[in-house]
Amino acid sequence: MWKIICVDVNDYCDLCGCCIDYCPEGAIEYSEPFYVNQNICTLCGNCSDACPIGVLNVHTVWIDDNEYQEDEE
């Protein structure tokens, strides 16, 4: 099994920027939609807690070894 941690922003984001202000690592970039740099993100959850409309979701995804595929170059 592979464990992948994800930070998702859904389509209802209103671009208020609260998540950017509360991210201690500066991992969220302002764009439409917001971009979360997974290489910088520490998964603290501050962005999710700060979001006034609850569109940010920090979660774990488990993938079976048979389902895992690396991106082809």
Keywords:
two-stranded antiparallel ribbon, 2 helices, Alpha-Beta Plaits, alpha+beta, 73 residues
Layout of helices and strands, plus pairs?
Elements: E1 2-9, H1 18-22, E2 28-29, E3 35-36, H2 46-50, E4 56-63
Helix content, binned percent = 10-25%
> What shape does the CA trace take?
globular
Total domain count? 1
Tell me the fraction of residues in β-strands, as a range.
25-35%
Structural class: alpha+beta
Write down the secondary-structure element order: EHEEHE
Q: Which CATH class is shown?
A: Alpha Beta
Kindly report how far apart the N and C termini lie.
23 Å
Q: What kind of sheet is the major sheet? A: 2 strands, antiparallel
Beta strands, count: 4
Low-pLDDT windows of residues: none
Average residue-wise pLDDT: 78
CATH level-3 fold name: Alpha-Beta Plaits
Assigned CATH architecture: 2-Layer Sandwich
Q: Number of helical segments?
A: 2
CA-based gyration radius: 14 Å
Strands ordered across the widest β-sheet = 1-4
